[in-house]
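Readers outside the structure-tokenisation community will struggle with the description of the input data as it stands. For illustration, here is how one protein appears when written out as sequence plus structure tokens:
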Amino acid sequence: MSEIEERLPAEASADTEREDNEPTDDGSMSLIKHLEELRYRIIRSLLAVFVGSAVSYYFIDIIMKYLTLPVGKLYYLQPSEAFFTYLKVAVAAGFLLALPVVFYHVWRFFLPALTTGERKVIAILVPISVLLFFIGLAFSFFFVLPAAVKFFMGFGGEDLQAMFSVDRYFDFVLTFVLPFGFVFELPLVITILGKMGIIGSAFLAKHQRTVIFLSFVIAAIITPTPDVFTQSMLALPMILLYEVGFLIVKYVMRK
């Protein structure tokens, strides 16, 4: 009996420790396990960004060739400017390459706290959100950015010649293109809110004028230049995407 009595507390202690380190039936984790999982996901995401940056730096000449297509020849004003700009371009491109991996680890981190139905929905929404983000970047880079650069270069003349610094030009491209990636998530956000019953077609129709006004305000805040042309290039797609979300809620979801 004494051996049995001594073994029972030991087994109970082992069971308790195992329960603390494993997800329970309701998807909860212990704090230590949760932090370990977070560290694991962050490390894997950073490794993906590092690998993507290394690959991007290997093809940096090709990337810079496409980046400079709208403007042509660039200049650098400091000895180290070109080198550090190349590094920034490689890291930015590496992050974009690693974005699906980063989204995957974010999804996996929150997975234990989700129900089966929520997991199915997230498994669909994550790829769609990544796809919409890249569509927004491509739309901005191939259609909006060349028009914006041509517009600004049109102010030049015989006495005023444009000479773009490679560092300033890359900062302009980055701050100009990235907002379009987030703006293209708008129909998805509206669809999710409509599916949750938070908004409906009547609500969206009622606030259309407000959205038009706020689109230009937001565009004025996040665009790199204060001119109306650049603001309109961001505000108009934002309004159009809002209308797309409105049509989805009204005619597809019928809410």
Summary: The radius of gyration is 25 Å. Confidence is low (pLDDT under 50) at residues 1-26. DSSP finds ten helices and no strands in the chain.
